[in-house]
Amino acid sequence: MTTKEQLLALLESSKDTYFSGEEIARRLEVSRAAVWKAVNALRQEGFPIDAVTNRGYCLTQRVDALSAEGIVAHLRKDRDLQVTVLPTVTSTNAVLREKAAQGAAEGSAVVAGQQTAGRGRSGRGFYSPGETGLYFSLLLRPTQYDPQQITRLTAVAAVALCEAIETVTGECPGIKWVNDLFLHGKKVCGILTEGAFSLENGALEYGILGVGINLYPPKGGFPKELAGIAGSILDQPIPDGRNRLTAEFLNRFLDYYDAPEQFGYIEAYRRRSLVIGRQVTVLVGGESRSAYVQGIDDSCRLLVRYENGETDCLSYGEISVRAHLTVRE
């Protein structure tokens, strides 16, 4: 690690604790001048480092600064993940796809504070402004998930994300099948799972799980076309919110991912479902049909009954929900 990265890791490990320049130089085995240079570099990147005479340097918790060191500090000690944090990317999924093609290991993650070309399902854009949102992707190389079960990864992520949000913020979002989280009637999170398959046998070579979260309201509000649809989880920033939320999600998701039956994600998914027992419009292959949602099966397929009495198990497609989930995506 560079001196700047080592300094940030030290300050992240003990926020609101002051370290003298001499102590930092001794711990990092660098000169006092190198410490001063690293402090200034971190300040230029937006990290709130206080400097007090006779006390030293301290990373305060007054703002929500996103960093790899901050995320790792909140990960469980048994989690050996490669976390890369970038201020701005086109798309975290796109960046991680390049890493995957170069042989990156499972558990590699790319986190960004802003996306200039964020994507949702079916090639739609995902509004990803800076400083108020959280956007990250995780590389998976599963062995217990076949290509037909890729929807399960999205469902597992939805449950883990709901639980992480509840733990960090106290808010309790619900899940709109299959990949969106809603809070107070508005969409606050989207999940996009993409896979690369072998041309020889059709096996899943790797999957990329992408998550976009509207944690705080964007400056100036949401664009006009999203104002009635999109919302944020919190009204005001909380200390270390984005680092904590990312780590909490990764800790919980990997528990479900490593042992899905043991942790019972499907029951948790059903409990948080916003569509079971409701009338919806099913959108598949350009066709719209009114249906009643009877439930969700163990493969996370949507069980519906159409108005003519026919039933179906949906593993893909979209639904539009009326009432206080007035959404057509």
Give an overview of the whole structure.
The chain contains nine helices and 14 strands. It is of the alpha+beta class and 329 residues long. The strands form three sheets. A seven-stranded mixed beta sheet has the order 3-4-5-9-8-7-6, with helices on both faces. A hairpin with a 3-residue loop joins strand 6 and strand 7.
Pick out its properties:
329 residues; Arc Repressor Mutant, subunit A; SH3 type barrels; 9 helices; BirA Bifunctional Protein, domain 2; 5-stranded antiparallel beta sheet; 26% strand; 3 domains; alpha+beta
Spatial gap, N to C terminus: 43 Å
- Strand content range: 25-35%
Residue share in helices?
A: 25-40%
Number of domains: 3
Which stretches of 5+ consecutive residues score pLDDT under 50?
Answer: 323-329
Strand order of the largest sheet: 3-4-5-9-8-7-6
Q: Please give the oligomerization state of what you see.
A: single chain
What CATH architecture label of the largest domain applies?
2-Layer Sandwich
**Whole-number average pLDDT?**
88
Number of strands: 14
- What top-tier CATH class of the largest domain fits best? Alpha Beta
